[in-house]
Amino acid sequence: MNFEFFLADLWAARANLLAGLWQTVLISAGSVALGTLLGLLVGLGLSYGRLPLRIALRIYTDFLRGTPVFVLILACYYIFSAAGLDLDAFQAGCLALTLFCSSHVGEILRGALNAIPAGQTEAAKSIGLTFGQTFTSVLLPQALRQMLPTWVNTATEIVKASTLLSVIGVVEFLLAVQQVISRTYLSLEFYLFAGLVYFVLNFAIEQAGRAVERRIAIPR
Length: 220
What we know:
0% strand; single chain; flat; mainly alpha
C-alpha cells in the first residue's frame, strides 16, 4: 500500500467524495425521517385500526419486509416510470428506502404497543382521556423507550442500503469511491477508506441513539 499516493489521490478527489458523502447523508436522513413518520402511522393502524385496515397494513409490512431492498429500488425506479410518474433516480431511491424503513418501523411500533399492559389504557380511560390523549401521553412515550434500540438498528441498515442506489445511477458515497478507484486503481486503499467512513456514520447514529435512550430512560 503506497500511503503517499493514496493521500494525494484522496485529496485530489475530495470534492467528488464529499459530494457523494453528502448524497448518502441526505438520502439516509430523509428516508429514515419520512420512513419513521409513515411507520408510526402504519404501526398505529396495525394496533388499533379496523380489521380491513389491519389486513391491508399487514400485507404492506410483510411484503416490504420480505422484499430485498435491491429489488425494491429497481421496482420503484422502473415501475413508477412505466406508470407515468416522473421520478428521477434520487427520488425513486429515496422512495424505496422510505417504504422499506416504514415497514420496519411500523412493525417495531406494533410490537412495542402490544407489550404495554392493557391496564395502562384502561387507567387512562378511567380519568377521562381521549384515545388521542392516551396515545400521545401514555402509550407512545412508553413505546418509544422500547422501540428506540431497534429503530437505531433500522437507521443503520438504511445507511448501508443507500449503497444500492448506485444501480440506478445515484452517485452516493460508494459509487463516488468506485469512480475514484477506476482512475487511480487503488482499490484496497479506497475501499478501506469507504468502510471507515460508513463505520463512522453508523457509529455516530448508535451513539446518538444511546444518548437519547439514556435521556428518556425512567430513573430507578
